[in-house]
Amino acid sequence: MPSTFHSIETAKRSLFTQTAALNTTGHNIANANTEGYTRQTVKMKASIPMEAYGINRSNVPGQLGTGVEFDAIERIREKFLDSQYRGENTELGSWTIRSNTLDKLQQIMNEPSDTGIRKVLDNFYKSWSDLSKDPESVTARTIVKENALALTDAMNHMSKQLSNLSADLTSNVEAKSSELQSYVNSIADLNQSITKIEGLGDNANDLRDQRDLIVDKISKIVNVTVTDTDQGYNVNMGGQALVTGFAPTTGINGAFLQAAFASNDLQGGEVHGMIISRDQFVADYTAQMDNLANTLANGDISVTLPKGSVLPEGTVLNGVTYTGTSRTLQSDLTVTVKGLNGLHQLGYTQEDKDANGNMVAGKPFFVTSNNGGTITAGNITLNTAIVDNPNAIAASLRVTGTAPTEELVKGNNTLASLMSNLKLNNFTSVSTGNTATIDSFFSSMVGQLGIEAQEATRQTQNSTALVSQVETMRQSVSGVSLDEEMSNMIKFQHAYSAAARFMTTFDQLLDKLINSTGVVGR
After folding, report:
1. Is the pLDDT of residue 160 over 80?
2. Which of 5-9, 323-327, 362-366 has the highest mean pLDDT?
3. How does DSSP classify residue 300?
4. Residue 143 and residue 15: Cα distance in Å, rounded?
5. How does DSSP assign 204-264, residue by residue?
6. How open is the CA angle 481-29-228, to the nearest 5 degrees?
7. Percent of the chain at pLDDT exceeding 90
8. Can you tell me the distance from the alpha carbon of 200 to that of 187, in angstroms, rounded to the nearest whole number?
9. Termini Cα distance of the chain
10. What whole-number distance in Å separates Cα of residue 127 and Cα of residue 386?
């Protein structure tokens, strides 16, 4: 038989349950715009009925219910969508960094433009052409000098920008490693807190939201996989553990991430993009610029020296040493020289004669700023002898007489003409052995950069769309809909009011039973 106050207890349970549902609805509404928040719901169920099967079961027909109760407040979350989101977020992180780096490289290259390397090269060749029209002009020689300095300055500046970009990427890897270490420590702490709370039978919903949000942020930095265990999340980057239960991995720094990249554990995320950008993109274009500078100065080129040209004493070409009367060419001679430097050393300057009475031959046109080693874009500079004295620029291939009465044919422009035509000459790359004009080498580099930047932009756009799509699906499951919550609030409010009305009604019945029954006729 049910208790006299059975219905009061039923109404009370309903009031408590609807109150919990209203409180949860209010919590959802309050966090509708909170990053990482997951919608929560009260899991209601009918409480255990009074009439269970047994020997002493009453003969009252039916099984009388005892109302409602809730056994948990749960998050509405789909683990599959979380895994999908983190995978796509990792790809987005890597491609975003690569795209940004390639955009910066395009700004450094600054092509096509009126201020880039190509324009400076054109001005340099043009100045030689102008000098060939007036070989004795000090002004024309000075313009050659200034354009040469502009060319070396442009290469030096570009090299410095590439070096700075590489250093920035390295420092960013260090910064991201510190951020990753902080996140890893937070997950280990949350694992411990969640385990303690849920050990008491409660669901640590809000702490779980914080932990999932941190994992989402980690997935933007590096690739992660998550395993839920009795001690919380185990977080791994490839085969490298980041968090194991309550224990975070310590010592996460740039070297740690570089080693993970080398072992192929680091396969995505912003750090992956930074390392690829630095070690592949920036390093590749730095090497190509270094090769361009060295090839211009020292790459093999084939030139034809016209009949009547007089080579400097002791010149060696095609294995032949030219001395004495053999210095004067009796016919056109096609030779291979070492770049602009080698060609410049075949001509004569307007400086005073040497100690033997010979006209002074041209010096290496380009040298290194550190006086030694291989010419690179970072150290290429104009020979200080030319900087100090434009007359040290060689423009002529003709002299008259013999030492010590040898005299320069000042009006001869043969070498200056050959120099101006180098724009169309094929150079053999010092590092690769490929043959092309300097302009073609540079155009190839710019074209490669454009294609890589275009591909990175496309991949970034695709990854952004995929992340947005998965996030939309995830929000459709886990996100707070204010319309739905308002509807729930009205539903729970009406249920609460009805339960309260039921309790009031039964209170009136009990009042009649207790205070009015048995008093007839008194």
Report:
1. yes
2. 362-366
3. E
4. 94
5. -HHHHHHHHHHHHHHHHHS--EEEEETTEEEEEETTEEEEETTEE----SHHHHHHHHHTT
6. 80
7. 80
8. 20
9. 31
10. 15
